[in-house]
Amino acid sequence: MLGKMPQEQYAHRSTMQTSEGPQVYKVGIYGWRKRCLYFFVLLLMILILVNLAMTIWILKVMNFTIDGMGNLRITDKGLKLEGDSEFLKPLYAKEIRSRPGNPLYFQSARNVTVNILNEKTKVLTRLVTGPQAVEAHSQKFEVKTLSGKLLFSADDNEVVVGAERLRVLGAEGTVFPKSIETPNVRADPFKELRLESPTRALVMEAPKGIEINAEAGSLKATCRTELRLESKDGELWL
Description:
The chain is α+β, with helices and mostly antiparallel strands.
């Protein structure tokens, strides 16, 4: 009897397992969770397509290419701008030039300022072109010809005119608050030359002599107190 009991229990368990059949466990997302996941995936795809379309539109509008953007081109020598350009903040460059055969324009609503800085970012030279005046701030100002000949120079000590002739076209002439040094003073043809000092003395000096000549007119010297002609080493010829 004892030997038959385990056999009957084993047979009973086997019949129960065969009667129930295999059990299947479902793995995954089902129901409303699945629908929400599909909705988010679809929304993400729409956003990606919109971003891609916007990126392509921006590239098309801004004219992005391999060489640059819009009128800006990147070359081996630097940056190249075609057409009119507007800079809202200071521009730092080593060299600015136009294309061969085309002029270069600088235009501003107020003024155009060019600063030359040293290694410590200190202003050494400044050129300001404003609506009322053109100002140059530097230790020395020079104007030269293409060949390098000095035409005009100015510093704290003196002003030098290197041209062969200096013409003053103003109706009232020119006023020199201090002395001037020149080898020749003359008027235009058929024009009178007048040298006067309204409130002070008028002195003319020369190391080798002074010649006053009026070839086609008269010579007149007028003073309020004294008229003095003096020669230290030679004679006076009138």
